[in-house]
Design goal:
Structural class: alpha/beta
CATH topology of the largest domain: Isopropylmalate Dehydrogenase
CATH class of the largest domain: Alpha Beta
CATH architecture of the largest domain: 3-Layer(aba) Sandwich
Radius of gyration: 20 Å
Number of helices: 11
Strand content: 15-25%
Strand order of the largest sheet: 2-1-3-12-11-4-5-10-8-9
Number of strands: 12
Distance between the termini: 25 Å
Bound molecules: nicotinamide-adenine-dinucleotide
Helix content: 40-55%
Order of helices and strands: EHEHHEHEEEEHEHEHEHEEHHH
């Protein structure tokens, strides 16, 4: 059965890293006959600045109705300071396609990349689930008496029972399906009492349905400390949109930096969006400098979502081998450019 993938490279280093991701996808598609069909969409800052249009009318519906996955690079361009096109496209997809699961594995692939003394591959291996459609990111609120000394800004934090329950349930289901022992829910219910009350009650209720899985709660400030002091205590972490946004960057640092991390924006059973977690890093755009591993591991995650687990595992193996051979970009201590680092991974992929 054909799987249709929308390829959206975006801005800055997005096109360069997506090009490397496509090399491994094209190779596997042909050699393992995966039946993937790719359609490229050039929505980016250039087209937005030239036309004033971020996504053409009907494009979101097209993605929703006719595709299985979106493979996206990054958005952000200094010429569009308000990030309007990025908000329309990236946040637009997250919200309009209801991609409520932000899936962020934190897995160290080589001992040498650990920033923590005495902590290696055995200790740094957990998964973060960030609620992706609610919280402080829904854009509810307003500014009163703007520009005056009496100015007031209100930013609402929205938590629905349905929204909280489905991400917590997804975290437990993931733990159950993947042999993970525990789920930790992180929030700040000591001060954010109302949203926190809903989260902790829902967490305790859902946990009862999974007696074989340990569960515990942690305040998010303590969580950041423990992720550094004792990362081995975590298997699965679930948290809200804003806390998840913050702790996943810390997670990326634990696995070797922003250039290493993959993410999925998922609605089970529907079209879902996969992207490296880094941004468009404008200072590196067009310089053949960016690390393509985040994008390549994102391609692996997308393949697993589409039902191609063996191929996904092969990509991770090839990436691990390339890192072990120091065939990497400079952020990992290597000497290769983006394209050569991608080629090295492709070469290893052909042998695994
Ligand atoms: N999902 C997204 O599209 C996304 C995410 C974050 C930031 N952004 C946007 O990207 C633009 C730049 O933001 P930023 O500088 O804060 O974040 P960034 O992730 O683009 O870059 C931060 C720094 O991380 C390093 N880095 C990131 N990706 C790398 C890679 N692949 N290889 C090597 N090093 C890498 C670089 O040192 C870079 O300067 C902004 O417009 C921002 O809004 C977009």
């Amino acid at each position: 059965m054909t799987k249709r993938i929308a390829v959206v490279p975006g801005d800055g280093i997005g096109p360069e890293v997506i090009r490397e991701g496509m090399k491994v996808l094209d190779y596997l598609n042909e050699s393992a006959k995966l039946g993937l069909e790719f359609t490229h969409f050039g929505w980016n800052a250039d087209t937005y600045l030239a036309t004033g249009i971020s996504m053409p009318p009907g494009a979101m519906e097209d993605i929703r109705d006719n595709f299985d996955a979106v493979f996206l690079g990054a958005y952000g361009d200094p010429r569009v300071p308000d990030m309007k096109h990025a908000a329309d496209i990236l946040l637009g997809m997250r919200f309009q396609l209801d991609l409520y699961v932000n899936y962020r594995p934190v897995k160290l692939l080589d001992e040498r990349l650990s920033p923590l003394k005495g902590k290696g591959m055995k200790e740094i291996d957990f998964v973060i689930f960030r609620e992706n459609t609610e919280g402080a990111y829904v854009g509810m609120g307003g500014i009163f008496k703007k520009g005056t000394a009496d100015e007031i800004a209100v930013q609402e934090d929205v938590n629905s029972r349905r929204g909280v329950e489905r991400i917590i349930r997804y975290a437990f289901e993931y733990a159950k399906a993947n042999g993970r022992k525990s789920v930790c829910m992180a929030d700040k219910n000591n001060v954010m009492r109302f949203g926190g009350d809903l989260w902790i009650r829902t967490f305790e209720e859902v946990a009862k349905e999974y007696p074989a899985i340990e569960h515990f709660h942690m305040f998010v400030d303590a969580l950041t400390m423990q992720m550094v002091r004792m990362p081995e205590m975590f298997d699965v972490i679930v948290t809200n949109n804003m806390f998840g946004d913050i702790v996943t960057d810390l997670g990326a640092a634990l696995q070797g930096g922003l250039g290493m991390a993959a993410s999925g924006n998922i609605h089970p059973g529907r079209v879902s969006l996969f992207e490296p977690i880094h941004g468009s890093a404008p200072k590196y755009a067009g310089k053949d400098h960016a690390n393509p591993i985040g994008a390549i591991l994102t391609a692996a995650m997308m393949l697993e979502f589409l039902g191609f687990k063996p191929e996904s595992d092969r990509i991770e193996k090839a990436v691990t081998q390339a890192i072990a051979a120091s065939e990497t970009t400079s952020d990992l201590g290597g000497k290769l450019g983006t394209a050569a680092a991608g080629e090295a991974i492709l070469r290893h992929l052909k042998g695994v």
